[in-house]
Amino acid sequence: MSYFLKSAGRVLRLTSTQFGTRNCSSLQKGLVLGVYSEEADGNNIQLSESAHKFNEKSGGKLLEHIKLCGNQVKEGKSFVFWGLDSTYQSVAVVGLGKRNKGFDQIERINQDKESVRRAATVGCKALQAVDVKDISVDSMGDAEAAAEGSVLSTWKFQEYKTKKDDLPKVRLHSNGENENGLWKKGSIKANGQNLARKLADTPGNLLTPTIFSESVQEIFKDLNVDVKVYDQAWAEEKKMFSFLSVTRGSVEPPKFVELTYNNGKKDQSPYVMVGKGVTFDAGGISLKPSASMDEMRADMGGAAAVVGALQAIASLKIEKNVKVLIPLVENLPSGSATKPGDVVTAMNGKSICVDNTDAEGRLILADALCYSGSFNPKWVLDIATLTGAMRVALGNAATGVFTNSNDLYRVLEEVGANTGDRVWQMPLWKHYSKQVTDYPAFDLNNVGKGKGGGSCTAAAFLKEFVPEKVDWLHLDIASVMGPGDDAPYISGMTGRPTRTLVEFIAAQE
């Protein structure tokens, strides 16, 4: 008897000896192994260290079966075999391409790390497709990247399904103690991103500002993080009327979350991250079109990313001091909502004409940026699904970054190249500042003059509220929020760039 499996577009013929007497539904334990190929067609293969050891243990059966497939294992493709080992009923062989590809100057990405993430993903998905519940993964030379690909790709958002799929457990097929530590680190960062994905995909009625703040308290209850949740009265006392103007159209009260993680030197100022937390954005009186409005449940993607990042930072016990600020609101239309043309005043005393109530993210971030100055920060980073213009400019390929510090940007770019979350610097010129500040009757307009450059004028607006003489980065993640992604290890809302934020904090001197 023979069995056939289509894997990565190929049909494999397996004899009854190879397959044994099991059927697919009983295959519960599997192994992912990496294979290098020096040629684009997958020929001239070389086994990874783990694959080489497995081949020796199997008496050369692994290589025999690869030869049965034409001896071709292309990068990003997989084959699944059975009956090669008594412990692992199924083995997925995945292509890594060439060794030591290095950094691609044009693509701005670490090809070796990304190849491992994608190979781990392809292998795990191939085994998941045949109902394997316990998957061991070859480190493929980078256990951290292998963990990221494995943990991200085997998770999915299914919180509100009556019958949930049983997701597989993934673990390292270890070659040493050092690899175990790297796998753990990669898993923690990937789980932080999965937390951000979960928050971003949760429907707006089930993640209001109040529920979000309560969820944050639960997330950090067993970690070294102090959680404070402030109400509307506190915001009024702080004169955060730009922030409060956005919430006027909703019956849901606003919240302002302040998270404090101190694991650095006692006298060291914190790094401050500000996450936009609009739990649902209908546009207010400047109502959005109905098509795809449901995706605005993820308009708190910035808040989700900083929560996921801080969870990972605290779990890894990174020796830094970090402050996270999250203004939380809903932006809805009603008789009490802010009207186009209304003028409000921010915490720093600057007056703002709200010409477009759908440009609300910058209004809540303005007061949060003002408040960040209270902590004498080493730098301030805000992150937000801020402008549709960023998606027009960059598609879903990268996060747009605006900054007054090229040194910080270079660190962020290098980190993003290694995590697979690419960033791209955008202009922060006086040309754009003039478009949002040159008005006779008030200090700023929340949309500004002129056509085009919407992401740039939004950043110029935020610049007006950054504490003086403080290095600042603004990350516009509207381009990468999801749903969907060109990376195979991401589905649904992406949670990007959570892992990049973790590594960026860790990289600070």
Automatic annotation (TrEMBL):
PANTHER family according to UniProt: CYTOSOL AMINOPEPTIDASE, LEUCINE AMINOPEPTIDASE-RELATED
Domain of life: Eukaryota
Job of this protein: Cytosolic metallopeptidase that catalyzes the removal of unsubstituted N-terminal hydrophobic amino acids from various peptides. The presence of Zn(2+) ions is essential for the peptidase activity, and the association with other cofactors can modulate the substrate spectificity of the enzyme. For instance, in the presence of Mn(2+), it displays a specific Cys-Gly hydrolyzing activity of Cys-Gly-S-conjugates. Involved in the metabolism of glutathione and in the degradation of glutathione S-conjugates, which may play a role in the control of the cell redox status.
Enzyme Commission code(s) on record: 3.4.11.1, 3.4.11.5, 3.4.13.23
Broad enzyme group: hydrolase
Protein name: Cytosol aminopeptidase
Similarity-based family: Belongs to the peptidase M17 family.
Keyword annotations: Aminopeptidase, Hydrolase, Protease
